[in-house]
Design brief:
Blueprint: H1 2-33, H2 37-57, E1 61-66, E2 68-69, E3 74-75, H3 77-91, E4 100-104, E5 111-115, E6 120-125, E7 128-137, E8 157-164, H4 169-191, E9 195-198, E10 205-206, E11 212-213, E12 218-221, H5 235-249, H6 252-258, E13 263-269, H7 276-287, E14 290-293, H8 302-310, E15 316-320, H9 323-326, H10 331-341, H11 353-366, H12 373-381, E16 391-397, H13 405-408, E17 415-418, H14 424-435, H15 443-452, H16 457-463, H17 473-511
Parallel strand pairs: 9-14, 13-16, 13-17, 14-15, 15-16
Antiparallel strand pairs: 1-8, 2-3, 4-5, 6-7, 7-8, 9-12, 10-11
Helix pairs in contact: 3-4, 8-12, 15-17
The chain binds adenosine-5'-triphosphate and magnesium ion (MG).
Length: 512
Amino acid sequence: MEAAAASSLWGGLNSGIMLSLLAVVWAMLWQALQGLQLQQYFGRHSRRLSRRLASILDPDLTVTVAEYDGGRMRRSDAFKEAKAYLERATREARGGVRHLKAEPDKDPDRLLLSMDDDEEITDEFRGATVTWRACTAPPREDSAPAYFWGRAPRADRRFYRLFFAERHRDLVLGDYLTHVRREGRAVMVKNRQRKLFTNISGDGSWDSDGLWSDSVWSHVVFEHPKTFATLAMDPDKKKEVMDDLDAFRNGKDYYARVGKAWKRGYLLYGPPGTGKSTMIAAMANHLDYDVYDIELTSVRTNTDLRKLFIETTSKSIIVVEDIDCSLDLTGKRKKKNKKEEDGENKKDGTTTKQQEEDKEKEDEKAGGSKVTLSGVLNFIDGLWSACGGERIIVFTTNHVEKLDPALIRRGRMDKHIEMSYCCVQAFKFLAKVYLDVDDHPRFDAVAALLREVDMTPADVAENLTPKAPGEDADSCLAALVEALEKAKEDALAKKAKGKEEAGSADELDDEE
Ligand SMILES: Nc1ncnc2c1ncn2[C@@H]1O[C@H](COP(=O)(O)OP(=O)(O)OP(=O)(O)O)[C@@H](O)[C@H]1O
Ligand SMILES: [Mg+2]
């Protein structure tokens, strides 16, 4: 009995040793096969074998939805849609997620919950059960170093992985993924919080997901209260602008049919305080679009300007305020005109390469922006401007006459809107908004003065704003009348002084 047990133990030991020996021999053989074609043959077979083994052990198929596509140029739409879809699924407690991530919500009293990293959520679709997992991975080694001259670290790569059974392959890859994208988009529209972007701190910022993003834009929530309902301007003109905006928003098919990029340029011009910036806020609120406010003097090169454009999203208004002050866009044109006067006959709207290079060199020496007129023209209607669609570009200026005609021609700036001094109608509108009065004995005096003197809506609005607890409509209107009378006196004094100076200049000429 003992002998039998010993022999079986010995046999077991022997077979163990045999197996180990076999493994060592196989490893040696494998080494020996290295460099030979045979290894490829065995490699192929072993890979096929391991795939079969894996499909037995792990029968699920997967789809990965990564956060960034195209070399981190921009965030993938599919990822954003999947994220929105899964946030809703988490909220509705389908799949019972145990570890959640909380972020500030649009509603200040609530938190937006989504599944934490490595968490899973199950979903049902037409009888198929699928599982989503939130995953992160460290940045790729071939991307920029984690810390680069004091810039914040590169964020981990985030992705969602969808697991499903082989038998649901067609359903999941077809209808289910379409369903996720559509539903995700609907959730995004519902939860949309409009943003105001700026390019001033263009070295990246923390994004709405609490992660570092090296986008050229940084943003805050856009919360400007101005709407067309509180913007004082000629009612017909206001209606025309609103109709134009509506036609643009609903014009996707029209733009496709006539073969134009789905974008529209507006030029707002007029003296300071006439409501140009206010109009942009009203436009954004009317259309429910984001606003990208470009500080052109902070853009170093034309390439940077293009990058800014590429990173804007659709349904947005791209604004360049005070375009005449931002850059010397007219400088090259002036040079060219001079040359034309000297007999050079060049095609309108072009500048020579040499002129462009000279200007860039001058600017480089001065350490300023190297954005040129052609860079801005390209930004408005070059090939890149068509990417994405549904964008409005707005330029504002106090001096429309200073702008290069090429910059504001129709097709680039399609609609020119003049914002002017306060007219009687605009005053009555402001009185209703600020003081809630439709009529008042002082209205006639104000109207008569407004016909004689220029005052901006900003100044009228300021006078109509009660500044102390006891002030009412009457005292505010009295203050406005006083301010208008003062403005009239100042204007008359200025005119008289101008005449005096002109007279003495004439006398000097006569003496000469
Ligand atoms: N047409 C208007 N209707 C209602 N409010 C106005 C209007 N115009 C100006 N205001 C008020 O005056 C203030 C200044 O206006 P805004 O900043 O829009 O002027 P602007 O034309 O952009 O001036 P600038 O050329 O100096 O940039 C705003 O806060 C706004 O409340
Ligand atoms: Mg302004």
